[in-house]
Every structure is written in structure tokens, then in C-alpha cells.
Write a structure and sequence with these properties.
Elements: H1 2-22, E1 38-45, E2 51-57, E3 65-69, E4 75-80, E5 87-89, E6 93-94, E7 100-106, E8 120-124, E9 130-135, E10 142-144, E11 148-149, E12 155-161, E13 172-176, E14 182-187, E15 194-196, E16 200-201, E17 207-213, E18 222-226, E19 232-237, E20 257-261, E21 267-271
Antiparallel strand pairs: 1-2, 2-3, 3-4, 5-7, 6-7, 7-8, 8-9, 10-12, 11-12, 12-13, 13-14, 15-17, 16-17, 17-18, 18-19, 20-21
């Protein structure tokens, strides 16, 4: 009886959630056909009430597009990538100035010479005006990811690969201004991680993130902290056996565990 009483709130919450899902009506506002883009993702809302997004492929040159869509589903192509100005765009970011900024994973001037290019940085105004601001050169990063804006008004991001040859092209953390002035803050070496993912800015003013892999003790990935001045601190290295999710003791349909850092920077986890 005690067990049932303890589980009753969870059962009730699950029932209400199920009932809420059943009441949702899905309305298709637009189906992409290619000319306006293909493989769209990453919508965000502008100050004008319309939504803005990117498409990985499609468009006039089949290299991806930037588009807006009204709440009623009317799509307007704002820009088509041609490779030399980038292709495979990441999710847009709306900055405090009301404009949208973003990166492409690949492309740039080298694309015209037969190469894939190493990615670009651009600005898009709500009226569709596109400005090419910067392109990556591999030795300062390649394959940039989505950006975040810091309190200093600059943007921060990562490149999954690239960086100095001496670091083994293991990825970077960079700062870039609204005008496209790029500064490489961190160059990963493999031993402190490889292929960093998107950053998040914490309330302490630092950036936190993870790397997918690495070498030596970091071969299964890391969690790191990066200060705005580029000081990198490795907080945790996954060893391949650390469990972040557990299925040993499921409660209803969702097993849950919590994890935290101790003062000694070790990752602790336990079933709820």
C-alpha cells in the first residue's frame, strides 16, 4: 500500500500527460519541395513575429537556404548558398541587435577551387539582407557549430576539427565579433579532448561544453570549462564505464539518475 501511495503522484502525472498529448492537433503549415530548401531545421522567432530557419540542402544552387515562414505557413526564401559563401548551414542565432547570425559547416572561397571549404560566418537581417563576414582556414578551425552571444556582445563557438597542425587538428574554441573579426581562444590537442560540441554560457560567466572523443585518458570524451580569455580547464574525462543513464531500476517508463561534480571534480551518479 505504501508503494502504491508513493507511486500515485507519478501515475497521475503520466495519465495527465497522456491525456494532454491526445488533445494536441497537428497542423502541417508547409511541405518543403526543394527550391525553398530541403532538410530544414532550427526555427526561431524574430521580433516581427515570423520564424526564421535554415535548410541543409536545396535552394537555387542545392547548397542550402535561409528562409522565413509566417505563422500561417507562408515561406519566403531569403538566401541561397552557392558553396563559395558556405553550405550546410547551422541553426541561426538572433543577437541582441535584432539581426540573425550563423555559421555554415562547410564552404567558403576554397569551394570554387574544388575543395569543400572549412566553414563560414554570416549575418542575416530580418528583411533578407545577407552579409558574408568570415571564412575559416582549417588551421584556425574547421566545421564550425552554432554560436552563442556573451555579455560582451561578441559571439563564441567551437569548430569540431581544425586548428594548428601541432595540435593535430583536434578542434577549437573561438570568439568572433559582429564584424567578423575572429580570435582563436583554445586549440584542443586530443589529450584534452577532440571534436568539441556547442558551448553553453553559465551564470558564472564561463563557457562549458563537451568533446566527443580524445586521446590517452580522454579517448571517450571530456567535459570542460573555458574562460572568456581562453583558459581551458578539463573537468572530467569519460572512461567508457561511467553511466549517465541506467536501466537497472526503471520507475514506470523513465529510469532516472542524477549526476553532479564533487569538489574534487569527479562525476558522481546514483539511481533515484
Amino acid at each position: 500500500m505504501r508503494l502504491f501511495t508513493a507511486l500515485l503522484p507519478l501515475l497521475l502525472a503520466a495519465f495527465l500527460a497522456s491525456d494532454a498529448r491526445a488533445a494536441v492537433t497537428l497542423t502541417t503549415l508547409h511541405s518543403f519541395t526543394g527550391p525553398e530548401g530541403a532538410n530544414p531545421f532550427g526555427l526561431l522567432q524574430g521580433r516581427d513575429g515570423n520564424f526564421y530557419g535554415t535548410a541543409l540542402f536545396g535552394g537555387e544552387y542545392e547548397q542550402g537556404t535561409l528562409f522565413s515562414v509566417s505563422p500561417e505557413g507562408s515561406v519566403n526564401v531569403l538566401f541561397s548558398f552557392d558553396g563559395t559563401n558556405g553550405f550546410d548551414p547551422n541553426t541561426l542565432f538572433r543577437a541582441s541587435d535584432g539581426n540573425f547570425y550563423g555559421t555554415t559547416a562547410w564552404g567558403g572561397p576554397r569551394f570554387a577551387a574544388g575543395g569543400a571549404g572549412y566553414g563560414t560566418f554570416f549575418k542575416l537581417t530580418p528583411d533578407g539582407s545577407y552579409t558574408f563576414l568570415y571564412w575559416f582556414h582549417n588551421t584556425n578551425g574547421s566545421w564550425p557549430t552554432a554560436l552563442i552571444e556573451a555579455s560582451d556582445g561578441n559571439f563564441y563557438g567551437t569548430t569540431a576539427i581544425g586548428g594548428p597542425i601541432s595540435s593535430g587538428f583536434s578542434g577549437t574554441i573561438f570568439k568572433i565579433t559582429r564584424d567578423g573579426e575572429h580570435t582563436m581562444l583554445v586549440s584542443f590537442s586530443g589529450t584534452n579532448g577532440f571534436e568539441p560540441r556547442s558551448l553553453m554560457r553559465a551564470t558564472d560567466g564561463n563557457f562549458y561544453g563537451m568533446t566527443r572523443a580524445g586521446t590517452a585518458n580522454a579517448k571517450n570524451g571530456t567535459i570542460f570549462r573555458a574562460a572568456p580569455d581562453g583558459v581551458l580547464t578539463s573537468l572530467f574525462s569519460f572512461n567508457g564505464t561511467t553511466r549517465i543513464l541506467s536501466t537497472e531500476r526503471p520507475i514506470l517508463a523513465a529510469p532516472t539518475i542524477w549526476a553532479r561534480f564533487s569538489d574534487s571534480r569527479s562525476l558522481q551518479s546514483r539511481p533515484c
